[in-house]
Design brief:
By secondary structure, the protein is of the alpha/beta class. It has 5 helices and 6 strands. The protein has a 4-stranded parallel beta sheet with strand order 1-2-3-4, covered by helices on one side. Strands 5-6 form a two-stranded antiparallel ribbon. Helix 3 crosses helix 5. The protein is globular, with a radius of gyration of 16 Å. The mean pLDDT is 94.
Length: 151
């Protein structure tokens, strides 16, 4: 039986002390894991910062961020962060998005009236931005006026 190592991943514990994060990532790569996922949970660490550090400290492992809470991250700025990581580490970045945990999003004043509408508007805009398109959106939750990522 042939096992695709890209299909086997590991989750970086959200409460792992910061001083152990990079060693954990290097060990995951050394043990043959194909993916390492970092989480973005309120009160712990940001997903993009963790992913960037892990990508820089490893050579081949794919790094996923899961999941970015769309109510707390503006789509244009999230697209800039994702595009930067993808450009610096081609083929090694995956980004998951979601509406976020309701209690956490309420704590920071970011829980929308319609979470699924926000998620749909956000993902459509995010994909278009990451494809390099100029994006105009006047949605219920997402508003962009001629935004385009420079490449």
């Amino acid at each position: 039986m042939i096992v695709d190592d890209r299909a086997t991943g590991v989750l970086l514990p959200r409460d792992l002390p910061a001083g152990r994060v990079l060693d954990f990532a290097r060990e995951a790569e050394r043990f043959g894991f194909g993916e390492l996922w970092v989480v973005e949970d309120l009160g712990f660490r940001g997903g993009f910062a963790q992913a960037g550090a892990v990508l820089a400290a490893t050579d081949r492992i794919r790094v996923g961020i899961g999941v970015l809470p769309v109510g707390a991250r503006g789509v244009a700025f999230a697209a800039m962060e994702a595009a930067t990581l993808a450009e610096l580490f081609p083929g090694r970045v995956d980004i998951g998005v979601g509406h976020g945990m309701p209690d956490w999003m309420r704590q920071v004043g970011a829980w929308p009236a319609s979470p699924l509408t926000l998620l749909e508007e956000y993902t459509v805009a995010l994909r278009a931005l990451l494809r390099g398109e100029r994006v105009d959106v006047a949605g219920r939750h997402v508003r962009l006026d001629g935004v385009r990522l420079e490449t």
